[in-house]
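Re: [ENG-882] Designed sequences occasionally contain unexpected residues at chain ends

Forwarding the minimal case from QA. Structure tokens:
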């Protein structure tokens, strides 16, 4: 029994060891990307990300990709998008190697615009504050105002054969242009008055490749001389960084950092003020003082950073990479070039001035931040690998292990300091160590409860033999201000009587005993004690009152297991759970922090959290390193809104991507008169790791409570009354991750029929009352009623089998399911029956819906087609469309439902 309890406790404490969460996402053609070459990136006002490719535009919501093609009548081979920007609420503008295009976000279509004026390559688009659009092309500069396009003759006083304008930018009151390997400046309101500035020595023969600007300066990327700076006020050029070669693309993020794409050396982040490279993105091993992020390949085409701080890198032939959303609240401790705690599963830690001691699954690491050194103490000294607890006593560290007992190590040399008294705990599991107010340390272990006195170097070990300790498996102890203590063991709880220096089981509170085994017992600032059970919410006791009060929190995920809790200020707490960190304010509302806040790993440890009051920092041990955050960042309440969008909608039919796009633009879902139910699947536009988030939803006007969404993120409502409702969705504990949509339920045909019946019934009642009052005969007695013969509602079995055989024969011979616009009425007409009769065949004979019946034939056709060698060159979407599916998403849902696997997994199984 004791062994089972020990294994149970170890499982709860360790929670398993997993690798650090991947912080970069990748999209390729296998994921549905339109083309493997991504040349431009835009994040729009709704939160979607658009990728410009060689074949059109791909829209990304963090989970799904939706492609918008160039029209089929465009046969040019190289149509790659050079630039993309928002035009208005419903359209985008893109420039490519052919001309200017407009993308309709409602109908997901694209058309060529202003071809009569702009019939050449469009390199860049820029909209100024007054709404004027400047268009940089291979044949010069154009401007568009109120949808009227005209050429701007900037070369009137600069005769040249090269009229190409590559880039445009606004810097202060100046319009800056990269044209004919020179920089031109002009007043924004008078672009035709452009003045050209040639590069001075020693940059005279430099080739200008790219340009970007902030509010004060213009940055130029060259082939031979690195990065240059141009000041529009003084018309002076200067060198920014010279050791960057072939800077082919530049952009400036919201913090003023310069993002550089090179032809051969990957991407870089440059601080223009310090004139240094602060971060490198490369596929090559690199020794540098700058931080380095490993890219898949150095052949990048575009590098930009959106307002959320997410990096987007588009490649030539290799798709796109993007960094996961990181709001930068939590950080994983590392000392660059010396030690990175993310490589270790940290079980315990101790902050000792400039030193940080970390107990891991593979020994003890001591990192000195001042000296920039890292020392290791392993099994040879500790007798075990897992270091579960660390405490400092005097000039020594007490290091507790799992299976190796407690060891005393010099704080100066980290050399072992033998202690015969501690030998009593040899090979014991140490669960926790708690310092008392007299300089001693209480040791909770599998061999009993020990009290170590640093002054005398003695250890008094309390066991079931020499005390009333219920069990030698002691998990935790908590001490009150007066020295009284509460102890939790594998077989029950007991107390430490500081006056008599003894352990007793008498006087235990029944409600506290019912809490069972405890994870932790802590003392709060006001003297109260808090008890954290293995399951459920904690409780508090004021030793003076002796009353146990429950402690509950709003918006704390009921699926999470509470591991540890720290008091933070007045009635505030920081809680670690099995999958997240929560900050609880005075009102008891829990604020959640997860992967999108910088937690690379959210598997925490019991007895391994701490607040460093001197630096105002919170620390916690995880299976992916030692994490920390500023208390001021944890207490903040304002976060940027992260929208939630709908990726799938079903009412009386599956919505097409165009229909879904219209719903999102209008924020309105209108049901048909034939149905009063809907099903939607939602997606947060976070572009990060959101697997640790849980969501809740509410249909205002229909219900007054929140419902928890499951992991599929599917919401369904049935039998709605006519009216207008608002569907609200938000992440539990993160209210800034939210979305809402209005649901309009019209009066359905059944409801109209019911209303008519009610009115007729009321009229009938009124007629009867009138006739009785006036003693008139009822109307049915005035006329001879004709009997009405009703047809049986249930289909005859023999007739049902006849139509079933006719239907199956027609499906096998004619294959009508290959028609994506097939309707039930078409099938009924083909086999010679009514739609009503065919509907009865599906429900009473085939026992399936029309949509599932057709989907099965299409899926069988897909699987047969996929096995043919000629189909290996086609994408999954193309194969599905050949089999009758209109779009990718309904096919994925139907295939998963029918086969239990994804199409991608099925294709892989064929290759194996």
């Amino acid at each position: 029994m004791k062994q089972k309890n020990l294994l149970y406790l170890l499982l709860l404490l360790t929670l398993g060891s997993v690798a650090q969460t991947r912080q970069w996402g990748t999209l390729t053609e296998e994921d549905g990307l339109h083309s493997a070459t991504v040349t431009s990136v835009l994040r729009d006002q709704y939160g979607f990300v658009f990728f410009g490719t060689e074949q059109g535009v791909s829209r990304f919501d963090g989970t799904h990709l939706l492609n918008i093609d160039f029209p089929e009548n465009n046969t040019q081979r190289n149509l790659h998008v050079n630039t993309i920007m928002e035009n208005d609420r419903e359209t985008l503008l893109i420039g490519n190697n052919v001309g200017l295009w407009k993308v309709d976000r409602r109908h997901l279509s694209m058309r060529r615009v202003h071809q009569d004026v702009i019939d050449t390559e469009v390199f860049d688009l820029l909209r100024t504050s007054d709404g004027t659009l400047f268009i940089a092309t291979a044949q010069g500069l154009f401007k568009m105002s109120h949808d009227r396009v005209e050429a701007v003759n900037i070369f009137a006083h600069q005769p040249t054969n090269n009229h190409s304008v590559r880039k445009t930018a606004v810097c202060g009151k100046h319009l800056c242009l990269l044209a004919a390997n020179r920089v031109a400046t002009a007043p924004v309101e008078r672009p035709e008055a452009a003045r050209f500035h040639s590069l001075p020595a020693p940059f005279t023969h430099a080739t200008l490749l790219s340009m970007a600007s902030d509010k004060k300066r213009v940055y130029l990327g060259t082939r031979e001389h690195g990065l240059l700076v141009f000041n529009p006020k003084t018309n002076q050029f200067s060198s920014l960084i010279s050791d960057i070669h072939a800077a082919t693309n530049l952009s400036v993020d919201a913090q003023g950092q310069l993002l550089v794409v090179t032809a051969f050396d990957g991407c870089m982040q440059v601080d223009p003020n310090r004139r240094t490279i602060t971060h490198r993105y490369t596929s090559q091993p690199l020794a540098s003082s700058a931080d380095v992020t490993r890219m898949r390949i150095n052949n990048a085409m575009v590098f930009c950073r959106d307002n959320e701080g997410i990096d987007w890198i588009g490649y030539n032939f290799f798709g796109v990479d993007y960094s996961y959303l990181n709001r930068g609240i939590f950080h994983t401790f590392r000392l660059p070039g010396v030690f990175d705690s993310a490589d270790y599963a940290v079980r315990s830690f101790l902050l000792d001035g400039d030193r940080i001691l970390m107990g891991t699954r593979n020994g003890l690491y001591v990192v000195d931040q001042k000296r920039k050194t890292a020392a290791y103490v392993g099994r040879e000294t500790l007798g075990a690998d897992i270091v579960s607890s660390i405490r400092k006593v005097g000039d020594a560290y007490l290091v507790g292990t799992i299976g190796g007992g407690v060891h005393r190590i010099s704080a100066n040399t980290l050399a072992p300091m033998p202690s015969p008294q501690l030998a009593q705990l040899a090979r014991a599991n140490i669960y926790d160590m708690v310092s008392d107010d007299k300089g001693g340390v209480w040791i909770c272990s599998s061999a009993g409860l020990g009290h170590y006195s640093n002054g005398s170097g003695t250890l008094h070990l309390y066991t079931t033999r020499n005390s009333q300790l219920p069990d030698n498996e002691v998990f935790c102890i908590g001490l009150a201000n007066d020295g009284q203590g509460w102890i939790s063991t594998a077989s029950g709880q007991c107390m430490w009587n500081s006056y008599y220096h003894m352990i007793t089981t008498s006087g235990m509170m029944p409600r506290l005993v019912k809490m069972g085994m405890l994870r932790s017992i802590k003392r709060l600032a006001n003297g109260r004690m808090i008890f954290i059970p293995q399951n459920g919410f904690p409780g508090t006791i004021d030793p003076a009152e002796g009353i146990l009060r429950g402690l509950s929190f709003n918006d704390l995920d009921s699926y999470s297991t509470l591991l540890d809790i720290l008091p933070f200020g007045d009635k505030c707490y920081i809680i670690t759970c099995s999958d997240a960190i929560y900050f609880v304010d005075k009102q008891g509302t829990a604020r959640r922090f997860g992967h999108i806040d910088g937690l690379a790993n959210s598997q925490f440890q019991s007895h391994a959290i701490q607040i460093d009051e001197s630096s105002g920092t919170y620390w916690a041990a995880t299976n992916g390193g030692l994490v920390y955050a500023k208390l001021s960042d944890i207490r903040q309440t304002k976060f940027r809104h992260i929208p939630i969008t709908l990726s799938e909608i079903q009412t009386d039919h599956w919505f097409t991507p165009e229909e879904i796009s219209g719903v999102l633009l209008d924020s309105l879902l209108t049901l048909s008169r034939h149905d009063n139910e809907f099903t939607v699947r939602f997606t947060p536009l976070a572009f990060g790791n959101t697997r640790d988030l849980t969501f809740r939803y509410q249909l205002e006007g229909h219900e007054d409570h929140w419902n928890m969404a499951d992991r599929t993120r599917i919401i369904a409502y049935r039998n709605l009354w006519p009216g207008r409702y608002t569907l609200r969705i938000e992440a539990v504990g993160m209210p800034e991750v939210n979305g809402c949509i209005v649901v309009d339920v019209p009066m359905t045909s059944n409801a109209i029929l019911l209303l008519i019946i009610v009115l007729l019934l009321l009229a009938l009642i009124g007629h009867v009352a009138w006739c009785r009052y006036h003693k008139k005969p009822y109307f049915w007695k005035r006329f001879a009623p004709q009997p009405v013969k009703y047809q049986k509602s249930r289909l005859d079995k023999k007739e049902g089998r006849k139509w079933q055989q006719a239907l199956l024969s027609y499906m096998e011979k004619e294959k009508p399911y290959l028609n994506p616009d097939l309707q039930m009425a078409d099938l009924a007409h083909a086999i010679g029956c009514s739609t009503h009769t065919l509907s009865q065949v599906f429900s009473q004979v085939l026992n399936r819906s029309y949509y599932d019946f057709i989907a099965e034939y299409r899926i069988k056709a897909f699987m047969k087609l996929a096995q043919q060698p000629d189909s290996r060159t086609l994408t999954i979407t193309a194969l599905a469309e050949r089999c009758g599916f209109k779009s990718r998403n309904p096919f994925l849902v139907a295939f998963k439902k029918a086969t239990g696997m994804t199409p991608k997994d099925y294709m892989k199984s064929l290759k194996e």
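QA comment: On inspection the terminal residues look reasonable. Residues 1-22, 784-792 have pLDDT under 50 and may be disordered. Proposing we downgrade this to a documentation issue.
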